[in-house]
Specification:
Order of helices and strands: HHHEEHEEHEEH
Shape: elongated
CATH topology of the largest domain: Gyrase A, domain 2
Number of domains: 2
GO cellular component, one term: cytoplasm
Helix content: 40-55%
GO molecular function: arginine binding; DNA binding; DNA-binding transcription factor activity
Number of helices: 6
Distance between the termini: 44 Å
CATH class of the largest domain: Alpha Beta
Domain Arginine repressor C-terminal: 85-147
Pathway: Amino-acid biosynthesis; L-arginine biosynthesis [regulation]
CATH architecture of the largest domain: 2-Layer Sandwich
Keywords: Amino-acid biosynthesis, Arginine biosynthesis, Cytoplasm, DNA-binding, Repressor, Transcription, Transcription regulation
Strand content: 15-25%
Strand order of the largest sheet: 3-4-6-5
Length: 152
């Protein structure tokens, strides 16, 4: 049952805009699954679902493995950076990006899936992303790429 439920969750977040756990639970119930908010919360964690910024200060669930959540990797990253990049700073081979609360993990996932060769890893908190660059000489160019994406 868990496997079927989680497959349905992936289908729902792929095909609909699901903004809250409550919406997801209601959609699952409409599909015949008996779920609690706690079950949905565990499934979201196990499936590694992320929140993607939407329009009008909303966000929705998506799977990081979904082929670009119906968008190209670069398009997704451009949109996330344009909507969510609040501040960017660098030192040596490290870049720090600030986002609105709750949006760092979604942007970090998009950065990871963009596969920029200079980025060897990201670490995301709630509103901060640490990006590690190699070689360190590439750091200013990577910062510039983010600023260009932010401008649209």
């Amino acid at each position: 049952m868990k496997t079927q439920r989680q497959a349905k969750i992936l289908e729902l977040v792929r095909d609909r805009t699901i903004e809250t756990q409550e919406e997801l639970a209601a959609a699952l119930r409409a599909e015949g699954f008996e779920v609690t908010q706690a079950t949905v919360s565990r499934d979201i964690k196990e499936l590694s679902l992320i929140k993607i910024p939407g329009e009008h200060n909303t966000s929705y669930y998506a799977s990081p493995d979904e082929p670009m959540m119906r968008r190209g990797n670069e398009d997704r990253l451009r949109r996330l950076v344009r909507l969510s990049l609040s501040d960017i700073n660098s030192s040596e081979n490290l870049i720090i990006i600030k986002t609105p609360p709750g949006e760092a993990q979604g942007m970090a996932s998009a950065i990871d899936h963009a596969h920029w060769p200079e980025i060897i890893g990201t670490v995301a908190g709630d509103d901060t992303i640490l990006i590690i660059i190699k070689p360190k000489e590439a750091t200013p160019q990577v910062v510039q790429r983010f600023l260009e994406l932010a401008r649209g």
